[in-house]
Amino acid sequence: MEVPIQSLPEALSGFTIVQISDVHVGPTIKRPFLNAIVETVNSLEADLVAVTGDLVDGSVADLARHVAPIAHLSSRHGTFFVTGNHEYYSGAEPWIAELRRLNVRVLLNEHVVLKHNTEAFIVGGVTDVSAHQFIASHRSDPQAALRGAPSHAAFRLLLAHQPRSAPAAAEAGFDLQLSGHTHGGQFLPWNFLVRLQQPFVSGLHRLRGLWVYVSRGTGYWGPPQRFGVPSEITCLKLVRAGPR
Fold first, then answer.
1. Are residues 135 and 94 in contact, defined by beta-carbon separation less than 8 angstroms?
2. How many other CB atoms sit within 10 Å of the CB of residue 188?
3. 3-class DSSP state for residue 198?
């Protein structure tokens, strides 16, 4: 998927982000499934890997060995993760600690500044929009995720589990938001109901100055089936937008 970015510097043209989302390692998705995901992602030789929440459905005690392959994700700038609602169902704080132990950068309403071919860019991440219902200090806040960021950064990426974060992300000044959560509908009747809850269900969309890409998910939730919406591992390439 190519994403045209206004005023993108030449140094960031062709920058690639591989996104996985909603793997739901748990009762029916185990280590071999995640191993296959890691192998595919690594074959894409991305500049950055984004994991946009709902990685797990269960505790660290039960699932740590099945999630361990995530430590082997490889990219130029590393692997970044934001919490989804299922991390909070499963014990978010132990999972955050475990993912950090596995060399995954967890972003909790914060950002990092990276440099690619001499150009600085920002990777921000917010907690799930429901996070404050489980941990009060985890209230999702795209404005906080940019606090203190350098104004000269050429590109601002936000990882946010739910598409519902998009209006606040656009207001904060991000260029691209990567989300999941919807599974693209996955099965009846959720494929109709999800449209009542989320502004975008799948694919690339525009909200004012913000691009929003919504993954259909890399795994599945509940019954191991999908209704016309296959799972995905997404490679997004930044390209320079032409004149309007």
1. no
2. 10
3. coil
Distance between CA atoms of residues 55 and 84, nearest Å: 8
Q: Which residue type is seen at 46?
A: A
DSSP 154: S
The DSSP element (H or E) to which 115 belongs, if any, is strand 110-116
β-pair partners for 19: 50, 234
pLDDT digits (tens, 9 = 90+) for 45-95: 999 999 999 999 999 999 999 999 999 999 999 999 999 999 999 999 999
Tokens representing 208 are: 């004012």
Identity (one letter) of the amino acid at 59?
S
Judged against a pLDDT cut of 70, whether residue 226 lies above it is answered with no
Whole-prediction pTM value? 0.92
Which residues face 151 on adjacent strands? none
Q: Is the model more confident about 128 or about 201?
A: 128
Q: The tokens of 60 are what?
A: 């660290």
Give the HSE-up count for residue 91: Cα atoms under 13 Å, Cβ half-sphere: 12
